[in-house]
Amino acid sequence: MPDKIRAYAPIFYKVHLMVRTRFAPSPTGYLHIGGVRTALFNWLFARKHGGQFILRIDDTDQSRNVDEALQPILDGFRWLGIDWDEGPEVDGPHAPYFQSQRTEKYQAAVKKMLTNGTAYKDYSRTEEIQAERETAQAEKRTFVYSRRWMAETDEQAAVFEAEGRTAVVRLKMPREGTCLIPDLIRGDVEFEWAHEQDMVIQKADGTCLYHLASVVDDAELEISHVIRAEEHLSNTPRQIFISQSLGYELPQYAHLPYVAEPGSKNKLSKRKIPKYLKNQDFKKLYDHGERIATRCDRELSEDTFNPVIVDFYRDIGFLPHAIINYLLLLGWSLDGETEEFTTEEMIAAFSLERVIKSPASFDPTKLTAFQQREMDKLDLKKKSALCVPYLQQAGLLETPPACDTGPYLNDIITATENRITVAGDILDYDDFFTVDASLPYDAKAFAKRLVNTEGAQQLLIEFRDTISELDDFNVESIEQTMREFVEAKDIKFGEIIHPVRVSTTGKPVGFGLFETLAILGKDRCINRMNLALESAQNEPPQAESE
RNA sequence: UCCUCCGUAGUCUAGUGGUCAUGAUAUUCGGCUUUCACCCGAACGACCGGGGUUCGAAUCCCCGCGGAGGAACCA
User: How far is the CA of A27 from the C1' of B70 (A)?
Assistant: First the structure.
């Protein structure tokens, strides 16, 4: 290591015997996709080294109901399979894991720093600090507080208090030398102490702030590696200062690039959905979700239905492993070739050295491709079990399902082959669960195939009569019948296929038609054809609008 | 304005002085097919810019440019 000049005490990085990482979410009521990636990397690193992963709740600044705001986050992690060794609901030797319940520790730390001269009481007023800040900016230099209202003795404090001032506690940062952070991802990063601020660590009302709390807790919880998003890199010098002032040994630091918006390098944010919707890929994902959620009668507010939040994916039927696998490759790679990892493989392969330094845009299309792969690996039983709740939520299936729906649903899912990307896609096949009389028709397809095509209705009538003679109504017999029908009438396949599909399913597209008819059964097919013919005959031909 | 980080196809990435610059995904075209999807075949597409070092630079150095983060009594 080069011989760096450090005005402050030399930095000792602790050699930890046990790897302990943490993720420290604020109870915001939702689990952000970027937060999941940070947590995932922490989790993988801990698992890889046989260490512990700790969940700590950063509720230093929360007035809301923490329980309510925390539950979705814990549920999200559990769904994804990211388990924690210590934290809410599991507790552990360092409990409590809520910062709001650890305030005495922070108060004690402030007291210690005040005593050893690494922090001071400051009686400045907000406007006064602001004025200094503006002056600095006008002079094009880094703002550094003049410490004009600093009080290091009781006498000084008494003078300021007599003026009606109240105190905050500030860090008394070094003003020369450099702070070197040996970041496990970025290498050595240097900051000049002279550019660092005398950060407030305790507010006038006596409550302690994030940086102090975070450092105290990391030390108390014996965190060995602080793996977090890069927006904290600039915060690290002040945290190192706090750490050293308190006599702690330093953890190893690793700063991850943030997850960026689709098609840009801005940080992904929950509140910018309207903007993201201008991105085609993002819109496609959103619309896909909306189609499913609408059918399930779900609320579509930004808080409950938002692709930046993990719940979105769970609610429309993504597989957790698809998300994990995708997120793993968003900012990390093994070799530029390998893409699919089981959880065990991820744990074995993961290393901080191979984390990418630059921010990565969230790509909904690629995530969907991972999802498709995961779905294709599922056997019929699992796929079916995932689909049932969607049919129930859409009111297409009873709860519990009638005993004969199992095989029926299995036939449908088998016939869909790989057309179901997310479990909610089963709702694309709602026509199998609708009573004949209320089957909706795709207006355009109905007009094209049954109204505007001359002779289509007559062909359908004849085909209906032909299949009504069939004793064995199965895929093979239906196919044979139709092929013979086509030959006998000397027509093209499409001339009968399309009217039949539209009349029996109401849709222009779907899986194999012979399978479709066989699953519906003879009676329903004939009934639906009759109903469609009736509608078609009542509808005058129209010019097609294209 | 100051400080710090980052910059390879649309997107995610491989690459550490010599490669036809890797793979994936997306897109386009063709094939298969009753539609859609799958599958098969092909194509398109990138080293932020400028200087330097070197026989040779995506790779090392310098200067720009662009993007992001920090400069809170937020986290």
Answer: 23
ipTM of the complex: 0.94
Interatomic CA–C1' length for residue A216 and nucleotide B24, angstroms: 43
Question: For residue A119, what are the β-bridge partners?
Answer: A171
Closest nucleotide C1' to the C-alpha of A60? B75
Distance A277 CA to B33 C1' (A): 34
Query: Do A408 and A434 touch, CB atoms closer than 8 A?
Result: no
pLDDT value for A304: 84
In this prediction the pTM is 0.93
Q: Which residue stretches of A490-521 are H helix?
A: 493-505, 513-520
Closest residue (CA to C1') to nucleotide B10 in the complex? A263
Amino acid at residue number A499: P
Name which of A417, A408, A392 is nearest A317 in CA terms: A392
The C-alpha atoms of residue A469 and residue A458 are separated, in whole angstroms, by: 17
Q: Report helix, strand or coil for A142.
A: coil
Residue with minimal CA–C1' distance to B15 is A336
pLDDT for the residue A109:
97
DSSP classification of residue A171: E
> Nearest-CA residue to the C1' of B11?
A363
Task: State chain A's mean pLDDT as an integer.
Answer: 91
CA of A189 to C1' of B46 (A): 29
Closest CA to the C1' of B69: that residue is: A231
Q: For chain A, what is the largest distance between any 2 Cα atoms, rounded to a whole number of angstroms?
A: 110
Helix (H) or strand (E) holding A452, with range, is: none
Q: Supply the pLDDT for residue A10.
A: 44
Looking at residue A2, its pLDDT comes to 30
- Pinpoint the alpha helices (H) of A296-404: 310-316, 320-328, 343-349, 364-377, 380-393
Protein footprint on strand B: which nucleotides are under 7 Å from a CB? 1-8, 10-15, 22-26, 34-38, 67-75
Instruction: Tell me the C-alpha distance between A431 and A504, whole Å.
Output: 8
Nucleotide at minimal C1' distance from the A267 CA: B68
Nearest-nucleotide field for A279 (CA, C1'): B10
What residues form DSSP beta bridges with A256?
A229
Q: What is the pLDDT of residue A236?
A: 95
What does the pLDDT read at residue A62? 60
Question: Closest nucleotide to residue A370 (Cα to C1')?
Answer: B25
Phi, psi of A280, rounded to the nearest 5 degrees: -55, -45
**C-alpha distance from residue A450 to each of A48, A211, A454, A540 (Å):** 62, 70, 8, 11
Q: pLDDT under 70 in chain A at which residues?
A: 1-16, 61-64, 540-546
